[in-house]
Amino acid sequence: MEKISVGVLGATGMVGQRYIKLLENHPWFKVTYVAASPRSAGKLYKDVVSSKWLIGEEIPADVANLTIQDANDAKLAVGKCKFVFSALEMGKDEIKALEEAYAAEGIPVVSNASANRWTEDVPMLVPEINYSHLDIIKKQQEHHGWKKGFIAVKPNCSLQTYMMPLHALIQAGYPVKRMIVTTLQATSGAGYPGVPSFDMIDNIVPFIGGEEEKTEKECLKILGKVDGDKIANAALPLVSSTCTRVPVIDGHTACVSLEFDLPEDKKPSLEEIEKIWTSYKSVPQELELPSAPVHPIVVRHEENRPQPRRDRETEKGMACVIGRLRKCAVFDVKFVALSHNTKRGAAMGGILNAELLKSKGFFDNL
Q1: Can you say whether the dihedral through the CA atoms of 230, 236, 242, 246 is positive or negative?
Q2: Which terminus, N or C, of the chain has the lesser number of Cβ atoms within 10 Å?
Q3: Which pLDDT score, from 0 to 100, does residue 57 have?
Q4: CATH number at residue 146
């Protein structure tokens, strides 16, 4: 099968680098275009990132000698790639306008950025959960007059720690009314250079700007439904979150307590909850997408797991790992969950979105 040529916007940043590395030897996609800020434009990729390559191993040889283009000029990508991954790092208004400019040029955008997450006709995808939101893309194209281009985004990285277990329970007939979530988020989530080392060593920072709003609201769009020319948010669950930064490199952890929207005699047992989680599969697994985990949710029984250093690479960094499932004295149940924030929560999650789009025919006529 001939590989689809793809571009990476923001290719020199941490998430952009992760895209470059994860796409090396991908069975469907090949990086043929890299773009970044004007100060990097015109230089070879290896010359710009060699001193700040953060991913480990070597820069992929087929990307190292690509010339970086100016990401601000969407026309430069025309004819050089079929679609782009957006890992742009700039103001939200700038990103929103720029992603729309690429879509207007007939280049679909698979984005990691938050700028278009709340655009009503842009799907915010977790492929196992809301694959049906792809139906909104046709309406999005009609709205803008785009024939081939469109925008699809992924949610905030911290949501990956609990969205699949939450969806699994709801899908099984156990709706959730309320949740309290406390996240312990890795330093890599702040990008590079990120949080100053003096603030993180021997310390925890109990605030991350904008994270709590994302954690509390984005889940409602993901659990919502396509309604005409927009995605209508779900009404529940109500979520209260506290987001903290902890001295861990990779791996976001969440401590979750939840209450079911059911009479007491209809609520699931701990054994039933675990069965629901361990048997959970969805469209990415059915289609055997290259980046999809075989087991999206993995449950551990050790009393001190999950742990970022030990468990973040489970299923190649694409699983939600859960432990400490137990009764809650205030709500119904509580547990600890972990996901890899720069893989499932960032670049590899974006790649899985692109694989879903390809498998559903959205790249057929590019």
Answers
A1: negative
A2: N
A3: 84
A4: 3.40.50.720
Least Cα distance to 31 among 54, 9, 53 occurs for 9
Q: Is 157 in the active site?
A: yes
DSSP tally for the chain: helices H, then strands E:
13, 14
**364 in any annotated domain:** no
pLDDT over 70, % of the chain:
100
Residue 26 annotated as catalytic: no
Catalytic residue among 81, 133, 157, 320: 157
| pLDDT the model gives residue 365 | 87
Q: Are 324 and 303 in contact (CB under 8 A)?
A: yes
The average pLDDT across 100-128 equals 97
Q: How far apart are CA 198 and CA 176, in angstroms?
A: 40
Mean pLDDT (the chain, rounded): 96
Do 144 and 162 lie in one domain? The reply is no
Q: Averaged over 91-114, what is the pLDDT? A: 96
Cβ count within 10 A of residue 3 = 14
Count CA atoms closer than 13 A to 59's CA, side-chain side. 21
Select which of 133, 167, 252, 340 is catalytic: 252
Residue 366 located in a structural domain: no
Amino acid 192: pLDDT:
83
Instruction: Please indicate, yes or no, whether residues 146 and 177 belong to a single structural domain of this protein.
Output: no
Widest CA span of the chain, in angstroms?
66
* DSSP result, 267-301: SPPHHHHHHHHHT---HHHHTT-TT--SSSEEE--
Asked if 259 and 351 sit in the same domain, the reply is: no
Range of the domain at 288: 157-339
pLDDT of residue 56: 82
Q: How many domains does the chain have?
A: 2
